[in-house]
Amino acid sequence: NQSDLDQLKREPSTATQSSMPILTVTPVSDRTSESSAFTQFTEPSALDWYETWLANTSTEVLQRQQCVIQIVGAGDAFFRSEIIEALNRARVLRDDPDTPSGQVTRLFGSLGDLGVIEELDSGYGASVPRAILLTDKGRAAFERLTGQSQPQTLLSRLLNRHKTPEHTVLNLLARNVLRRFGFGRIDLFPEPRRTSDGALVKPDIVATSPEGEVLTIECERMRKFRTPDERANKWGDLAAITNGQLYVVVPGQAQQRDLISEISQWAIETRARSAQLFVCQFLKAIRPEATSPWTYTTSWSIP
Q1: What is the phi/psi pair of residue 76, to 5°?
Q2: Do 176 and 86 contact (CB within 8 A), yes or no?
Q3: Which residues contact 143 (CB under 8 A, 6 or more apart)?
Q4: Residue 131 near residue 120 (C-beta atoms within 8 A)
Q5: Which candidate among 33, 69, 111, 302 keeps its CA 20 to 30 Å from the CA of 256?
Q6: Alpha-carbon gap, residue 118 to 189, rounded angstroms
Q7: What gap in Å lies between CA 128 and CA 296, rounded to an integer?
């Protein structure tokens, strides 16, 4: 849960684009030796459920469940589609991340029933994927499987940076979309920049497009009403460091509508000479027919 994540020690803010570590799943035939080897990491009271799980789960299902625990614990895959891709790479599954089968649904359901994974409620509703993380029980299983304590994950570092699950999850969803469309280096911890007037801008994401263009990208939940001064600071300062090119990720249609309205107000209020808006509406960008992360574009030129 969030309180567990907040207790983790914050690491330095560095760019994160790590590849998935090689997974090693404990063979079922080695369950006895594996159990004795890792009891040092787990309280004795926690052993009963673990041993029952090993004894009562088929070899094939157990291998997949263990692999999911290691993938989530390693901290670079958070959504079901990402986890399925990692399972496919580990060759313990062959499934479509975009349209998962009933077998995959049962796999995640069994891990939820076991109490080793949980979903982080970002408040966006059922249509937007929820991030998956390990529970205390899941972390104990991760330690038993790997012989290591769970490392601080990207999710916990982003929670430290953005403070709320809503903004944190939206940044991870944005990374998901950018990866899908071939963006290279995706920096979720970019350094702050200053405008020529000295104003400080703290971008959410800086990423390199397939064409080699470095883009500064904002993730907007549109949960607050900004005053004219706040709009000028938010969009005026961002436009100052991007030459008027505003790249913004929103969850869905309602947030896109509010975003366009707010930037229109800013452009009129400040008589912005020119600004171009590129919107990535997540729910459109993940559709199979989408050809670009930028699902809507418009521009302003105030005389």
Answers
A1: -125, -5
A2: no
A3: 38, 41, 42, 149, 150
A4: yes
A5: 302
A6: 25
A7: 19
Least confident of 40-44, 153-157, 182-186, 253-257: 40-44
pLDDT at residue number 45: 52
Instruction: Report the percentage of the chain scoring pLDDT > 70.
Output: 84
Number of CB atoms found within 10 A of residue 47's CB: 14
Residues 5, 165 contacting (CB under 8 angstroms): no
Dihedral sign of CA atoms 242, 243, 248, 254 in order: positive
250 has pLDDT over 50: yes
Instruction: Give me 158's structure tokens.
Output: 């982003």
Question: If residue 218 lies in a helix (H) or strand (E), which one and from where to where?
Answer: strand 214-219
Under a CB-based contact definition with an 8 Å cutoff, are residues 156 and 147 in contact? Answer: no
Cα–chain center distance at 35: 32
pTM: 0.79
What is the pLDDT, as a whole number, of residue 280?
98
> How many H-runs (helices) and E-runs (strands) does the chain carry?
13, 10
Tell me the CA distances in angstroms from 214 to 100, 170, 203, 218, one per residue in order: 33, 20, 13, 13
Q: How far apart are the two ends of the chain, measured CA to CA in Å?
A: 51
* Residue 46 confidence (pLDDT) above 60: no
Residue 132, phi then psi, degrees to nearest 5: -105, 135
Determine the pLDDT at residue 270: 85
pLDDT (0 to 100) of residue 107: 95
CA atoms within 13 A on the CB side of 218: 22
Stretch 270-282: mean pLDDT: 89
Return the closest-CA partner of residue 250 out of 260, 242, 240, 241: 260
Contact present, 8 and 16 (Cβ < 8 Å): no
3-state secondary structure of 21: coil
Please give the structure tokens belonging to residue 268. 């009129």
Would the pLDDT of 39 be above 50?
no
Decide: residue 19, CB within 10 A, 0-12 exposed, 13-18 middle, 19+ buried.
exposed
